Amino acid sequence: MSNIEQLGALVRTIPDFPKPGIQFRDITTLLQDPWGLKRIIDEFVSHYQYSPIDQIVAIESRGFVIGGALAYRLGCGLVIARKPGKLPAEVERQEYQLEYGSDSIEIHRDAISENDRVLIIDDLLATGGTCDATCQLVEILGGKVVGCGFVICLPDLKGPERLKRYDNHWLIEFEGD
Ligand SMILES: O=P(O)(O)OC[C@H]1O[C@H](OP(=O)(O)OP(=O)(O)O)[C@H](O)[C@@H]1O
Ligand SMILES: Nc1ncnc2[nH]cnc12
């Protein structure tokens, strides 16, 4: 088995969560495996180590875990994009549709400076709504999105098409969702 196949085998699939018909790809089982956690961070480091990045924007909530470890390894800053009402200072907000509902995402207005080179990190790319909204927030604040990185992509939900204007990278794919 390749490293990537082994990583995929560490992801747990929960049928009908949080709604009937959704196959929930649960990365907690991957994160709690010492080899798995190190492997995903090392894979991202080797992909992004020569890209000029000022800030990682990590998306709530599982994106925080990966984004935090990666920002430490790449020596860049960490900005958190949060669900509404969680950030204490002035925010910019975008609404978006999810595979299973709608939501909004917020970022502190002073977290991104003009021309900051920003890498967006999340655990999973499904429809791309969450990441697209986050990219828009970064651009409204004057940042440049240099890439979007995910542990998992569900290509059938067309996230890569929605984000085709960006340089997207993911480690594991699950077809048929
Ligand atoms: O590509 P999309 O269709 O936008 O879906 C992907 C998003 O959905 C999940 O988060 P969720 O909204 O479940 O929130 P959580 O991480 O806080 O549990 C996942 O962690 C991504 O952020
Ligand atoms: N199928 C899925 N599994 C885990 N997180 C998701 N976010 C959106 N769709 C998801």
Automatic annotation (TrEMBL):
Report which reactions are catalysed by this protein: AMP + diphosphate = 5-phospho-alpha-D-ribose 1-diphosphate + adenine
Q: Which GO terms describe its molecular function?
A: adenine binding; adenine phosphoribosyltransferase activity; AMP binding
Looking up Pfam families in the UniProt record yields:
Pribosyltran (PF00156)
InterPro entries registered for this protein in UniProt? Ade_phspho_trans, PRTase-like, PRTase_dom, UPRTase/APRTase
Say which domain of life the source belongs to.
Answer: Bacteria
Assembly, per entry: Homodimer.
Check the record and name the PANTHER family matching this protein: ADENINE PHOSPHORIBOSYLTRANSFERASE (PTHR32315:SF3)
Q: What is this protein called?
A: Adenine phosphoribosyltransferase
